[in-house]
Amino acid sequence: KLLAHLDRIVAWDSGAKPAPITLEVDLSWRCNLGCQSCHFGHTHTKGPWTKKDRILPMAFSQSGDVADTSVMMRMLEQSAAAGVQGVIWSGGGEPTTHPEWVFLTMRAKDIGLHQGMYTHVGLLTADTATHLAHSADWGVIRLDCLTKDDYTAEKGVDRFDEACHGIRHLAGKTVVGVSFLLSAHNWHKAPEMLDLARSLGATYTTFRPTINTSPATPTVCTEDRAWITMA
Prior knowledge:
By secondary structure, this protein is of the alpha/beta class. It contains seven helices and eight strands; from the N terminus they run H-E-H-E-H-E-H-E-H-H-E-H-E-E-E. It has a six-stranded parallel beta sheet, covered by helices on one side. Strand 1, helix 2 (about 70-80) and strand 2 form a beta-alpha-beta unit. Helix 2 (about 70-80) runs parallel beside helix 3.
């Protein structure tokens, strides 16, 4: 990415302060999933994680909920004017839980910003998927699991079918990446996960190791990672 934007490097080297190429924006701290391995569960204001015992960092003791739409509008307009080229909609929560996410992504498109979104797609309908595909260059979906039972155990809710439907709604309309978490218990099922993603219409598939930590020692992995050398 740096090599594609050498003008920014030259500007920095000359003492200027050019705008970033992309911004990553958290639209919502709500999420209707309760993923066991979520590193942002302590930020959630609604959803399964709010019903779990959580150690909340002081900065999140009185957190927000969803981004203010008027503030987001100003951010998009001012960013584009400053030279920002794209926005990645992400979050401690699920971006599509924001009640105005369709409006905001369409507005960003009208302004001329490129867009991508990290989403579990379980809330997408055929219509909203079309809106997202029209606005965004790509979407990355964290499916993580191969079966409904595995999904329910990992996410805390039975929404596997909704996630699969969301991927199908989006596939073929924009670039769709489907991501899976691997662990000592499922790494050998990676070929089946790849087949599932392809059957749902994914453009590409990625695999990531599960990293679980203790809130008291967030830099220390609490699980044996010896399986990685066998994968």
